[in-house]
Amino acid sequence: MKIITLFTMVFFCLLHAPVVSAQNLLLVKEINTQPNGSSFPNNFTVCGGKLYFFATDDANTKSIWVTLGTDATTQSIGPSGGVANSLSNLATFNGKLFFSYNNNVNGQELWTSDGTSGGTTLLVDINPGIGNSFPAAFTVCNNKLFFVAINNSGLSQLYVSDGTAGGTVNLRKASLLGGQTKLAILNNEVYFLSDDGTGSGNGLWKSDGTPGGTVLVKADIVPTTGIPGYSAVLGGNLYFNASDAATGSELWVTDGTGSGTHIVKNLRADAGAVTASGNPQNLLVYNSKLYFAASDDTHGMELFVSNGTDPGTQMVKDILPGSGGSQPYQATVYNGLLYFACWATNELWKTDGTDPGTVLVKNVLFTAPKFAASWNNKMYLIFGGSFYNVWESDGTTAGTKEIQPQNTSFQVTSYTDFGSDPNFTPYGTDLYFNGRCFSTANGFEPVKLTPAGTLAVTWLGVQAKWLTLATAKISWQVTAEQAVKNYSIQQSVDGIHFSDVLTIAATNSTGYSCVAPASANTKNYFRVIEQDMNGSRTFSSVVQLQRNHGITLSVYPNPAADKLYVSGIAAFNTLKITDVKGRIVLRQNILPGFSSLDIKRLPAGMYLLTATGDKETQTLQFIKF
């Protein structure tokens, strides 16, 4: 078990008191138990009432895992033995999982799973032999699964599948631009980039999943319809970022016909197929209008709004005047307002669609936020580069802050392997993601936020006190228990790596204590883990069983005849000597100037000397001869 905590230098530690609208953080399962190891779960996907994800175990094997939200229900279903880290693009269709995988025999191909180890198999070898087809851009439309893969021609092709090998059909050559993860959808048809119909040039195509229904919509444009944020549907039309030879990259619209496919507005009229185009991004529908980030001839990249017409396409607010602009790069709708993040200013903003109604929520002073999820009546956001801090927001400045789960003492971080995809997934009543919290686990593991009030216990405190040189008394207090199975006491010599020392059954109490082994020759850190009847666990804070400011009791000479000199007694009040049968044979208060005990009347033999103070007790052995 790998745990890091802030070393607690006191014997009694209270956790943060519960706060209004708080949440609890629970470790779902520690999949990689190696010291400082991480399983890096990702691609969380709900299918058939269960939650699936990719994760890497102790043997550095990446596989599909399934869970119902508890440690006991979290297990791997394979596949295994293939190329390391080749699992990717997990999707669900008709109650089954579909993904890309290289089993070291067929290359990177299309696989499927019914959620069991035996039902996880290769679906079709699109590029036969060891060749790779790299299936990607899985998109469910018109009760079909569309995707893009490379066949033995070496070209990117559009495929459709009904979930069977025989029902997986090649539809058309398709150009897969970098970053594409899903195809755009309008009226039960997918839209994609291919040639201009003659085998050269480029054009916008659509498909209903049949060869006859896969047709050219508009030639001589390069649409970006497979990257999230570069297209959106409004009023029965598909709006998207596209470029042509005359205007460069601008906002386009289509109703699915050639005549109904045209540019909405040339925001950068001076661009003309150079990089300084309007380049609309992060398209999002709000209040029956289209909002997006773009540049015009005067301003840098700012927030724009459009009703689908040239005159009705205008900038909402010039947040950061100049050629660079504020660079809005992500947006979401929450509680009736549009929230967006500005990359250039590291700020979170909100708008009702008007200039006066566009106001700053918070300057976060570091990398601008990415919207991870809306859950429990809050927005959840991540900040950072490779490792992200997790924040929450209720839309106010004061309410935009790092999350503080009521059952942890430390901040939570999230990591993602997939750029802007934060992999935060609501499942049941909880929010799941790839996280790390020093109160829970050192590495990145599957964790979940659960609404406050659903924990089996709330920790009030934990204490540790020496009993003898080899034992310590561990005590803890909790709120009234709800379906608690047991408590495990864990010990560590470095505060990092913990191991179980004993487990006691829950007795529906609010206070517990037990005697745990401890070592007088090392540092001792303790914590308690509560396990629910459903397999979930929560962690107490950590306490250090320490010597009083480094002072250790000692005696000399040993063996002794008449006098036993005692040092290291400044932190103690009383001394007692017991024989091997536990009988007290001498007791003395420690007064100023005390340095030795008169033991000449004691029979020869082995004895225990115990010093007791306000905060701890120390015991050692000596021999009388």
Quaternary class: single chain
Q: State the distance separating the first and last CA atoms.
A: 46 Å
Q: Strand tally, please? A: 53
Spans with pLDDT under 50 lasting ≥5 residues?
1-20
Work out the helix count. Answer: 0
Gyration radius, rounded? 32 Å
Strand content: over 45%
What is the SS-derived class? Answer: mainly beta
Principal-axis shape equals elongated
Largest sheet: 9 strands, antiparallel
Helicity level: under 10%
Could you tell me the mean pLDDT? 86
What does this structure look like?
By secondary structure, this protein is mainly β. The protein is built from no helices and 53 strands. The strands form twelve sheets. Strands 1, 31, 32, 33, 34, 35, 36, 37 and 38 form a nine-stranded antiparallel β-sheet that branches. Strands 18, 19, 20, 21 and 22 form a five-stranded antiparallel β-sheet that branches. Strands 41, 42, 44, 45 and 46 form a five-stranded antiparallel β-sheet that branches.
Secondary structure elements and pairings:
Blueprint: E1 23-27, E2 42-47, E3 50-56, E4 62-67, E5 75-78, E6 88-93, E7 96-102, E8 108-113, E9 120-124, E10 136-141, E11 144-150, E12 156-161, E13 168-173, E14 184-186, E15 189-194, E16 203-207, E17 214-219, E18 222-224, E19 231-234, E20 237-244, E21 248-254, E22 262-265, E23 281-286, E24 289-294, E25 302-306, E26 313-317, E27 328-334, E28 337-342, E29 347-351, E30 359-363, E31 370-375, E32 378-384, E33 387-393, E34 401-402, E35 412-415, E36 425-427, E37 430-437, E38 441-451, E39 459-468, E40 471-478, E41 484-492, E42 499-505, E43 511-517, E44 524-532, E45 537-539, E46 543-545, E47 554-556, E48 563-567, E49 572-578, E50 584-589, E51 596-598, E52 605-613, E53 617-624
Antiparallel strand pairs: 1-38, 2-3, 3-4, 4-5, 6-7, 7-8, 8-9, 10-11, 11-12, 12-13, 14-15, 15-16, 16-17, 18-20, 19-20, 20-21, 21-22, 23-24, 24-25, 25-26, 27-28, 28-29, 29-30, 31-32, 32-33, 33-34, 33-35, 35-37, 36-37, 37-38, 39-40, 40-43, 41-42, 41-44, 44-45, 44-46, 47-48, 48-51, 49-50, 49-52, ...
